[in-house]
Amino acid sequence: MPLVIPVVLGSVRQGRNGLRAARYLVRCLEARGHEAPLVDPAELGLPLLSRMYKEYQPGEAPAALERLAATYRRSDAFVVVSAEYNHSIPPALSNTLDHFLEEYFWRPSAIVCYSAGRYGGVRAAMQLRAMLGELGTPSIPSLLPIPEVHKVLDEDGILLQPWLERSAGRFLDELTWYAEALREKRKGGVPY
């Protein structure tokens, strides 16, 4: 049975390389038969967090939040694509994630990190791992770092270097295992 796995992009910068990685992951997930909507903060135009989605009265949340909440509620897992800004999480990603809470519960996440340099954004990934756990969508053990992302993927997310295909395959195999296992457990209820 196909999974629903939104790919949450974390950058709104002009010329952002993260879109390359996000497009690639959407394509990989769809090739496996899964639904992989792209959550792009540049397109969503979410306000800076002044109140969470759950703090709005029914029908009063901005339309973008309502649409995103509907997507998240039917999701089985999340792929989070993050750059590294000052050894940390991009502010647009934090803002996008922080609007929600219960919508993440009992669903795994997977971290894809990237950079123009050799470290592939792993310092941000460590902080993101803690944040995702606190949100209720704990990350799988593996990461998918993409160093020198502009040399690995073109602007449309097409592979330029074949090593990523094998790494991404193992990474998505792991995420699929966790997502299917937790989906089955959610059917029987959750601890609270």
Automatic annotation (TrEMBL):
GO terms for cellular component: cytosol. Signal peptide: none annotated. SUPFAM superfamilies: Flavoproteins (SSF52218). Transmembrane segments: none annotated. GO terms for molecular function: FMN binding; oxidoreductase activity. Pfam families: FMN_red (PF03358). Residues 7-148 form the NADPH-dependent FMN reductase-like domain. It comes from the Bacteria. This is NADPH-dependent FMN reductase.
